[in-house]
Amino acid sequence: MEHKIYLTEIVISTDSEKSRTQVGIITSVDGVITSIGNTGGQAHNAGWQVGSPAPNGDLFIATMVES
To answer: Distance (Å, rounded) from C-alpha 38 to C-alpha 19?
Structure first.
């Protein structure tokens, strides 16, 4: 299964999504991550690793920003 990796910016004052950018794909088999294609390393920095349980659906990595 493929899980898209997105970086999202969340506006602090409103908790609303400002932007979303796809930065990679996690591939899983039977609920276990088999590969991570993310050249920026955001998924690894967030703790996702090959062999770990896969995310439920797509992965959204949030950054809080000012409006």
So the answer is: 18
